[in-house]
């Protein structure tokens, strides 16, 4: 069931027509698509094959149903797609446009073939917000193009994704610019030139066609939630390294020397002298050398440990809430923070 109207605004007809082609390629019926673009200076009339005022634009290209009494089917282009039904039309307050699709049929009078209603009213009837409808009409008057799609809830996301890729304009920003220039919205006219502006980004607006719903003021109240997270307060590093230092120790070493001494004597030879025998006497010299050895000993321990302390911190901030003031016809004002009700205070 169709219950949404999706609108996308473009600065150029070429971008809008490419968006239409992609929508149709994605399976969106051309009977649910509409395109209206400013034809100021006859810039896009070459794309149109008919007029909606009873005369043909290109006699050799006109198909059945063009001209006076054009139906929704011919406006939508039939089996050839939406753009095959593109025609020229004059809309009061907007000037010449090229248009096709279901929205155009509300602008064309049956039998007369002339625009009998404004674009703003047609958009509002389709479910577009009144302020947005006036802004879109102003955008077309300034040289832009509008694509409007009727969609079911299940199609909305897919259609918006397609329109997102085709250079749609950031319309909120565009409205802000116009108002700064002096445009005031509904029923306003803007002084100055009406040339199209460059695209500044992307916007899409989807509005429900449902009517008669209640006006609702949401009453909201913020709550303060304080959580915890760990943060780095710095680090302590221990780094060990090996250094060398000179040391000295004293040690007493013993060393032997062999001395040969010849002593002159004069005594009789005795048997103890063992004279006239071959003998060999050896004497060995010895000395002590220093021997160095090392022993590693633990002389100190460096211990790294963490200790945790707890502290209580008071967090101060602000929270918001909605207060609804109910004023009855006698001028009595009742402030009801956080709730809504009738002036008498009775619960409904």
What does this protein look like?
The protein is α+β, with helices and mostly antiparallel strands. The chain has a domain at 4-208. Helix content is 17%, strand content 14%. It has helices at 13-25, 72-75, 102-105, 119-125, 130-141, 156-164, 171-181, and strands at residues 4-10, 33-38, 50-51, 87-91, 95-101, 145-151, 205-208, 323-327, 333-337. It has a seven-stranded mixed sheet with strand order 3-4-5-2-6-1-7, sandwiched between helices. It has a two-stranded antiparallel ribbon with strand order 8-9. Strand 3 (50-51), helix 2 (72-75) and strand 4 (87-91) form a beta-alpha-beta unit. The longest helix is centred in the N-terminal third of the chain and has 13 residues, at 13-25.
Tell me the span between the first and last alpha carbons.
Answer: 33 Å
**H and E order:** EHEEHEEHHHEHHEEE
Number of helices: 7
Structural class: alpha+beta
Which outline best applies?
Answer: elongated
**Any low-confidence stretches, pLDDT <50, length ≥5?**
55-74, 110-117, 189-213, 337-348
Computed Rg: 51 Å
- Strand-residue fraction? 5-15%
Largest sheet: 7 strands, mixed
Helix content: 10-25%
Mean pLDDT: 74
**Sheet with the most strands: spatial strand order:** 3-4-5-2-6-1-7
Number of strands: 9
């Amino acid at each position: 069931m169709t219950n949404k109207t999706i609108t996308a605004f473009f600065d150029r007809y070429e971008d809008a027509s490419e968006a239409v082609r992609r929508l149709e390629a994605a399976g969106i019926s051309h009977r649910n698509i509409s395109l209206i673009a400013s034809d100021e200076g006859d810039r896009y009339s070459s794309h149109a094959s008919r007029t909606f005022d009873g005369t043909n634009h290109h006699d050799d290209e006109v198909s059945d149903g063009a001209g006076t009494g054009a139906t929704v089917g011919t406006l939508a282009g039939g089996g050839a797609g939406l753009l095959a039904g593109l025609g020229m039309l004059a809309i009061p307050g907007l000037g010449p446009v090229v248009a096709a699709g279901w929205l155009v049929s509300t602008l064309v009078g049956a039998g007369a073939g002339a625009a009998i209603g404004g674009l703003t009213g047609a958009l509002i009837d389709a479910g577009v917000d009144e302020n947005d409808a006036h802004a879109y009409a102003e955008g077309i008057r300034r040289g832009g193009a509008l694509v409007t799609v009727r969609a079911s809830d299940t199609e909305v996301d897919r259609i918006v994704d397609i329109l997102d890729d085709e250079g749609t304009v950031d319309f909120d920003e565009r409205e802000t610019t116009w108002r700064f220039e002096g445009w005031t919205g509904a029923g306003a006219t803007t002084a100055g030139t009406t040339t199209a502006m460059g695209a500044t980004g992307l916007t899409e607006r989807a509005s429900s066609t449902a009517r008669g719903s209640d006006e609702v003021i949401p009453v909201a109240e913020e709550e303060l939630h304080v959580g915890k997270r760990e943060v780095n307060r710095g680090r302590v590093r221990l780094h060990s390294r090996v250094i060398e230092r000179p040391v000295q120790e004293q040690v007493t070493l013993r060393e032997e020397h062999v001395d040969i001494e010849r002593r002159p004597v004069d005594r009789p030879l005795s048997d103890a002298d063992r004279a006239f025998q071959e003998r060999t006497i050896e004497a060995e010299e010895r000395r002590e050398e220093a021997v160095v050895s090392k022993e590693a000993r633990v002389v100190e321990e460096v211990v790294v440990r963490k200790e945790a302390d707890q502290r209580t911190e008071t967090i101060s901030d602000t929270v918001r809430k909605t207060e609804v003031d109910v004023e009855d016809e006698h001028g009595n004002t009742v402030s009801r923070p956080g709730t809504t009700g009738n002036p008498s205070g009775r619960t409904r």
